[in-house]
Amino acid sequence: MIMERKIKLKTLNNHITCKICRGYLIDATTVTECLHTFCKSCLVKHLEENNTCPTCNIVIHQSHPLQYISFDRTMQDIVYKLVPDLQKDEINREREFYRQRGLPCPKDIPPNPGEADEDKPPEGHGESDYHRQDEQVNVCLECNSSNLKTLKRRFIRCSAQATILHLKKFVAKKVLNGMEKYRDIDILCNDELLGKDHTLKFVYVTRWRFQNPPLTLQYRPRIDI
User: Fold this and answer.
1) What's the pLDDT at 110?
2) What's the average pLDDT block by block, 10 residues per block, for the chain (225 residues)?
3) 3-class SS string, the chain
4) Phi, psi at residue 179, to the nearest 5°?
5) In this structure, are residues 184 and 151 in contact, taking their beta carbons and an 8 Å threshold?
6) How far is CA 71 from CA 87, 180, 201, in A?
7) Where are the compositionally biased (Basic and acidic residues) regions (predicted)?
8) CA distances (Å), 74 to each of 68, 78, 198, in order?
9) Contact by Cβ (8 Å): 139, 217
């Protein structure tokens, strides 16, 4: 007979809490250089003034540390499974945040009727791959370079969990005729270069929270710094 061993949550707290705010991880984000994990909002705020990991002080990148952090979906799923009601409470807090500012919560915005062909998944893939039940974000993609074509349809609607890398591949396919050319595309918000692992939800909350939808992003040819 196998005996189940119960473990108190507090014995795991050191592994599932943010070392910056000391709370449970929300939008768990990992520094790719050292693999330390923090709440995404905590880490981004720290990196606005610093370029080092808050835990080990390793230099993440001299000039663009935000491009070297990555959303850790596995860790976040673990935290939500271990901590009762954390995900529910976080969703309620998010709705209250938007309510206090008189803005619609992205989770509660109904989908537009009749999505454009460009928004549909490519043939040959299962519907389950496209996160149709996820929170959705309306995005406007504007070209700010005369060296690239303008998209025929600038407005798209996609999962809030989609990343900037997904958009780079989308733009590359449409304007460079090849998804593999995504490295030649930069995506910006308010003239700020966005890291490839930023989710659209994160960009919306941190760069667009006080502005009206859609989330407006710009694309341009890559500029090496």
Assistant:
1) 65
2) 73 93 94 91 92 93 84 91 92 88 76 48 45 76 93 89 93 93 94 90 86 92 81
3) CCCCCCCCHHHCHHHHECCCCCCECCCEEEECCCCCEEEHHHHHHHHCCCCECCCCCCECCCCCHHHHEEECHHHHHHHHHHCCCHHHHHHHHHHHHHHHCCCCCHHHCCCCCCCCHHHCCCCCCCHHHHCCCCCEEEEEEEECCCCCCCCCCCEEEEECCCEHHHHHHHHHHHHCCCHHHHHHEEEEECCEECCCCCEHHHHHHHHCCCCCCCEEEEEEECCCC
4) -60, -30
5) no
6) 16, 22, 11
7) 119-131
8) 18, 6, 16
9) yes
Q: Return the pLDDT at 222.
A: 92
Say what the pLDDT of residue 165 is: 93
Altogether, the residues listed in the chain come to a count of 225
For the chain, the C-alpha Rg in angstroms (whole number) is 19
- Predicted confidence at residue 141, as pLDDT, reads 96
26 CB burial (10 A radius; 0-12, 13-18, 19+): buried
pLDDT at 104: 80
Q: Report the chain's terminal Cα–Cα distance, integer Å.
A: 62
Which pTM was predicted? 0.51
- pLDDT confidence of residue 98: 83
Q: Are 61 and 101 in contact (CB under 8 A)?
A: no
Tokens representing residue 82 in the block: 């271990």
